[in-house]
Amino acid sequence: MPTALEHICHQASVLQQEGKTPGLALLRSRLGKQLHPAELLQAFQQWKQLPATEREAISQTLFNSRAPASGTQSATTTTETDRIEQLEQLEQRVKQLEMLVHALQERLDRHHVGC
């Protein structure tokens, strides 16, 4: 289940693709029924502090976890080509997660230097 921050990142990305500036009011209108107002506000504040690359990585992680694997079939009829495609999708997901971990580590390192 996606976190509040993942919801915010994804919806903000959708809004930006629509040419809109993601603000609290717009996000509340899109996510108000999915998130408690306090949770929405906290996640929005976290989102605003994230670097753009980290926001995008989180949004892509959520999008890819929701997207069904294209061309997959039932386990009894899965071909070798389908398995290769699934493996490639998993490798891409791992790369995205590694980017996210790296961005978070850099952020944590900057925080420790400032203390």
Essential attributes:
about 75% helix, globular, about 120 residues, KfrA N-terminal DNA-binding domain-containing protein, mainly alpha
Low-confidence stretches: 67-77
Give the rounded overall mean pLDDT.
Answer: 80
Indicate the radius of gyration in whole angstroms.
17 Å
Helix run count: 5
Distance between the termini: 34 Å
| Biggest sheet details | none
Give the strand content.
under 5%
Helix content: over 70%
Count of DSSP strands: 0
Give the number of domains: 1
Quick one: overall form? globular
The helix-and-strand class reads mainly alpha
The quaternary organization reads as single chain
**What are the secondary-structure elements, in order, as H or E?**
HHHHH
What's this model, at a glance?
The protein is mainly alpha-helical. It is built from five helices and no strands.
How would you sum up this structure, described in words?
The protein is mainly α and 115 residues long. The chain has one domain. 74% of the residues lie in helices and 0% in strands. The chain is built from five helices and no strands. This is KfrA N-terminal DNA-binding domain-containing protein.
